[in-house]
Amino acid sequence: MTKPDVFTLYDVCEATWPAKARQEIDGWIIRDGANGGQRVSAATAVTHGEVPDIGAAEIAMADLGQNALFMVREGESALDEALDARGYVVKDRVNLWVAPVEDVAGDGAPRMSAFAIWPPVGIMTEMWNVGGINTARIDVMRRGAEPKTSIFARTNDRPAGVAYVGIYGKTAMLHALEVTPTQRRNGSAQNIMRQAASWARLHGAAYFSVIVTQENKGANALYSSLNMESVGQYHYRVKPRD
Question: What is the rounded CA–CA span in Å between residue 146 and residue 161?
Fold first, then answer.
């Protein structure tokens, strides 16, 4: 199977981390994020590379009670320039990483260090909430494409971290990786990745992917250490509030 390119990974992200609703309006895909964060709330052009009427998108997002927010993907320099001219600033440049699922799974996580559990149990949602992943984002997981699961990690016989992973086509994507501060730098995040990839392999995935902001140096280093490759990016444009 050919390695997924950046455009395939955009689709995987859309399926595994979906908006509450989406509709096409005047050349835009407008998403109702239901307070689930940027990825499920940003507008994108229906036709890649085109620049539809930005004002129409602004009105549609305002009708949903959302601030105007646009995702700019690879090859959309014209859109990027048009938004810049209207006063929109760049927010959160995001890398997309991918590797064969076998490379990430390796020999699997150490025994009793991480578990695939669906639906997530109370301690997992509590850990997400502490890390800033609120109920609205957990609702995004519940909307995600099947198959899917959450990962619960334990280190030193204590709760260590959580993540969510879903599969679309033959590609799995991990989201919402959160490691308890006291359990960082001891292999907990790597155990979560190994367990997530092992689960994905068992459920038919050929590739494993993840997205992360470029500012998150630790996470980017982790994915690189697992032989994942950064294949592209996207970023947001938002207008500063007065």
Answer: 22
List C-alpha distances in Å: 130 to 177, 180, 185, 218.
Answer: 12, 9, 18, 19
Collapsing DSSP to helix, strand or coil, 99 comes out as strand
Per the document, the length of the chain is 242
3-state DSSP assignment of residue 241: coil
181 SS3 class: helix
DSSP secondary structure, 120-160, as one string? PPHHHHHHHHHTT--HHHHHHHHHSPSSEEEEEEEETTEEE
pLDDT value, residue 242: 62
Interval 13-31: pLDDT, tens = 999 999 999 999 999 999 9
Closest among 176, 171, 193 to 116, alpha carbons compared: 193
Tokens (6 digits) for 133 = 């992943």
- Assign 88 to helix, strand or coil: coil
Residue 182's pLDDT band (cuts 50, 70, 90) = confident
Tens-place pLDDT, residues 193-216 = 999 999 999 999 999 999 999 999
The structure tokens listed for 102 are 């076998």
Q: What is the C-alpha separation between 68 and 50, in angstroms, rounded?
A: 18
Contacts of 122 (CB under 8 A, 6+ apart): none
